[in-house]
Structures are given as C-alpha cells and as structure tokens.
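Risk register update: the risk that structure generation would not scale has been downgraded. Supporting records follow, first protein first.
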Amino acid sequence: MFHSHIAIQTADFDVSQELAALRAGDARIGAVCCFVGTVRDRNDGSAVASMELEHYPGMTEKSIAGIVAQARERFEIYGARVIHRVGLLAPEAQIVLVAVSSAHRGQSFLACEYLMDYLKTQAPFWKKEQTPEGARWVDARVCDDEALARWEQS
C-alpha cells in the first residue's frame, strides 16, 4: 500500500503534523526522510525582501503526482508527502516540504533528494523576488540542472 499527499497552498504547514500523517498506521516504516525549503534573505548577491510564487492550478498538482509516481517506481518507498506554498512569502518562511517513508534510510534519502531535484527543475512554479534593485524572476540554477542530470544517468 502506497500513501501520497500533494498540496499546493498559501497557508504554512506544520512539519511534525505532516510527518505524523505520513507515518500513521504503517508499521512497515523504518525510515522517514524530510526536506524543508525556506526563503533566504539573499540571492545572487542581493538582499531579498520577499518572494512571490505562482503556479498553474491543476497542472502543477498533476506534474508533481507524476514525479511522485516516478519516485515510487524507482525507489522502495511506502509514502510521500509534497507540500508547496504559493503566494507572497517573507525570508525565513517555509516554501516546500518533501517527506518520504520507506523500510530503510537509504531509499528514503534517495527518493527525497530525487523528488526535490525534480521539483526544482520540472514542476511548473515561477518565483519572483523583490530586491532593492526591483523585482526579478528567479531562473533555474545550473547546479539544479546538474543535480537532475545525474538521475537521468543512473
């Protein structure tokens, strides 16, 4: 039995509640890996006052569901939770949660990293930062593309 939950929301999330939901009632679980991404106060040498995230409702959830399905085929995992916030966020705010459960830590670590690498590069989100120089759209970083490429080679 595989459990997944995908949410795109403006509201913040409680990591401990999400991890409890991921683990609930599944005695097979021996490992949970979790990644939480937050808004930084600096990027590319400039101060960041806020970040605004946009998405295409429906299409974004479908894209993430596909990424989760790929992770399930590739790794021995029992469940995954992906929560991504949209809207206007201040530095230190939580943006994304990726949590994965499995029998052993290795599969959870790999699947969590895989999901995050695909989210950073393939999920349809657009980020705009407010800086002292004005608003700017955030492009994917070369290191994000390099991280994704290693999964395609293995």
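Supporting record for the second protein:
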Amino acid sequence: MTVRIGAKVPNSGPQPLAAGIGATARELEQQGYDSLWVSDHVVLPREIDSRYPFAADGKATWSTDTPYYEPVVALAMMAEATTRATLGTAVLVAPLRNPVLLAKQLASIDVLSGGRLAIGAGAGWLREEFDALNVPFARRGSRLEEWIAIMRECWTGTPAARRSDFYELPGDLLSLPATARPVPLLIGGHSPVALRRAGAVGDGWLAQQDATGLDPDELRAAREQIDAAARDAGRDPSALRVVLRVVGSGGACDLVAARLADLARVGVDEVIVDVVDHDPAADLARLREGAAA
C-alpha cells in the first residue's frame, strides 16, 4: 500500500498573512503533496481550563492569543489556488455550526473544486468554545452524528424531512448545489466512542500523534476497534480510511519517513505533516523514500 502524503497549510499564527493561504497551498501542491489540510478554532479563552486530549498532561500546547482564520474560508481560498490536491480539515468541530449552512458551504467548495474535498470532523473538547457559541457541550457526540446525517442528506440536493432532539428540518427543500458524491467524512478523536463512531457512521478515522512519539501499535489497536464497529453496523471495514495527523513534524519529517512502512502495515493510508517553516521539497523527498520502503 502506498501512503499518501499530505501537508498542513497554516491557517493560524503569522503565516497566513506573511505568505498567504492560497499561495502556500499552491506551492505545496506544486511540490507534489497529495492533500492540503487546515485546522479549526472559532474562539479561544484567555486561559484554557478544559483538558486537551492530545497531550499527556492535558495542557494545550499553543498560546491562546494565536489568531485562527476560519477553515471554510481558508478552504475556499485553497480551492481557487489549486487544481489537483485533496482539500480537508483536521479537524472541523462540526457541532459548533449549523448543519444545513455547513453542508451548503462544504458542497459549494466541493463542487467548485471539482470534487476534491474531504472533511475531518470531531465532537470537540473545548467547553469554553461551546459556551461562547451558545451550543450545549453535553451530548456533542450525538449532535455530531446527527449533523453528519443532515449534511449527507443535504448533499443529495433533496434532504428529507426530519425531527429529532437536536434539529427539525422541513420537507420539500432543495439544497443546491448537490455534490457528485457524498463528501468523505473522517471522524477525529481517540476515545472509544470516537473510534466506534468512525466505524459506525464515518468514512474513516482522522488520528493524531506527535512526531516524536509515533506509535503504530496504538493505531493498530484503534483500527481493530473501528473495524469491529463497522462490522457491527453492517458496513465494510475495508472501505474505511485512516489518516494520521502528525503534529510537531516541522523539521522532523525524517522521523515520520522512518516509520512510514510501519504505519502502512497497521493500516494508515495517509499522513499529514507540518512542512511550511522548513524545506517542503526536501521533506517530501524524505517522506516519499520512506513510503517506498
């Protein structure tokens, strides 16, 4: 199996203004990266009390006064500037947004880009962000599953009427443009419920590990849980993809390259690395060598 190589396009910090989101995406596509991804936060508190699930000590690893440019806006800029690469979010906190409006925005980008969109979506971990947007933090996972169902309905162009605890959608609606196919939705998160969700309702899993602590055994065990959930839901596990976001990989792509063969063996289909602050062409060459191994 050939591992696809994706790059994180910075949509936070000084890089978007210094280099431009579209220009950066274009450069990385021209270098040969298979996919281009952005991240998501709507607001951040001055002090984070919520536990950050991707650090052993539960502490967020960046300054909260870092500006985040809205990911759907960033994706639109990237779509205009590129022609080939897959465009995605790693990850979008979908429950913070209205599902019908979000479906419309994503369908617009997918159709205008020629069907190149893939969305990593998560339930979210930052309670303060939910509070700021007046969205209940409780049952956010169930809300995510509902939003996924609503978006997939909207992408057909003729969503069915529905009434649930979270949303009421009238019948006889048109949601256009319709996508040529459902936009792939990868589920983010490492908790047991997130893995179950990836297998039961997602098109795969968007995992995250640090470059200095890549753990294929953890990914193998998670993939087994995802496959079991898919089988329980009457779905084909082989149709699901695993994409690994490697944080802290800027300047450390050699570490990722050295583990790509191991990652492929445990079912990782694609990695997303940080490359912009370094030499993206040299990083990609190292990663391709690792993938070939």
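The first helix runs from residue 15 to 19. On this basis the risk owner (M.S.) recommends closing the item.
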